[in-house]
Design goal:
By secondary structure, this protein is mainly beta. It has a single domain (2-250), classed as Porin (Beta Barrel), CATH 2.40.160. Helix content is 10%, strand content 61%. The chain is built from one helix and ten strands; from the N terminus they run αββββββββββ. The protein has an eight-stranded antiparallel β-barrel.
């Protein structure tokens, strides 16, 4: 009986050994790296170039007359450096990426043009400085590894974009002193592309079109006009192209 038990144990050991060896030879596959996601907060900076136009429009004064001819207009080309910083957040589902971004910085638009059809040196002039936007973003991510994002964006823009109408002419020509537009609000939309080379850093290029309040009215007195106030409408539109660098905080 004792010999029989030993023989059975030996057989069981021989039979089980290959199975045990097979189990030891199979290694668990390495864990797959986490899939890249655009979801998270980010901060960054940007720099680029802006160009556009400022148009002055002759409107009726308080004496029911126009400065030149009612609705006559003339345009100054504007251009300059733009730069600043941005902060935003993205949420990704599938290949769709939804986001919101706010930025602030310097919009260095400058332009000057003299009304060409009359004497007197009446001009329109623009000088830009601070500006900000608050925009939504919607994009689609692509390979390789989900790290390329192409997006549309649009929303609010505001800028301290001072546009003035005046005259350089000396007496006896009537001197015109019209107040500037000051801070202006409008809308902007555009498109861009962003590439992340790791989980935290990404670079982008972006184009935005902007339009401020259409025909914003400004007014002022002129020499010899007593209390008469002369009015002009001002239109500011344009575009900017910029590159940016973002640091992202993953959720």
């Amino acid at each position: 009986m004792h010999k029989t038990a030993i023989a059975l144990a030996t057989v069981a050991t021989v039979i089980g050994t290959p199975a045990l060896a097979a189990d030891l030879a199979v290694k668990a596959p390495p864990a797959a790296p986490p899939a890249f996601s655009w979801t998270g907060f980010y901060i960054g900076g940007n720099a680029g170039y802006a160009w556009g136009s400022t148009t002055g429009v002759d409107e009726v004064a308080t004496n029911d007359l126009c400065w030149f001819s009612c609705n006559e207009n003339w345009t100054a080309g504007t251009h300059g450096f733009t730069g600043g910083g941005q902060i935003g957040a993205n949420w990704q589902t599938g290949i769709a990426v939804f986001g919101v971004e706010a930025d602030a910085g310097y919009l260095g638009l400058k332009g000057h043009a003299i009304e060409p059809n009359t004497d007197g040196g009446t001009f329109v002039n623009t000088n830009g400085s601070f500006f900000t936007t608050v925009r939504g973003r919607f994009g689609v991510s692509f390979l390789p590894s989900n790290t390329v994002l192409v997006y549309l964006t649009g929303g609010y823009i505001g800028a301290d974009l001072d546009s003035t109408v005046g005259t350089n002419a000396a007496a006896p020509v009537q001197l015109l002193n019209v107040s500037n537009t000051g801070f202006q609000s409008g809308w902007t939309w555009g498109t861009g592309a962003e590439w992340a080379w790791n989980n935290n850093w990404s670079v982008k290029v972006e184009w935005l079109h902007y339009e401020f309040e259409h025909n914003k009215t400004i007014g002022g007195n002129f020499a010899g006009g007593d209390s008469t106030v002369q009015f002009f409408g001002v239109d500011n539109i344009g575009n900017l192209v910029r590159a940016g660098l973002n640091y992202r905080f993953n959720w």
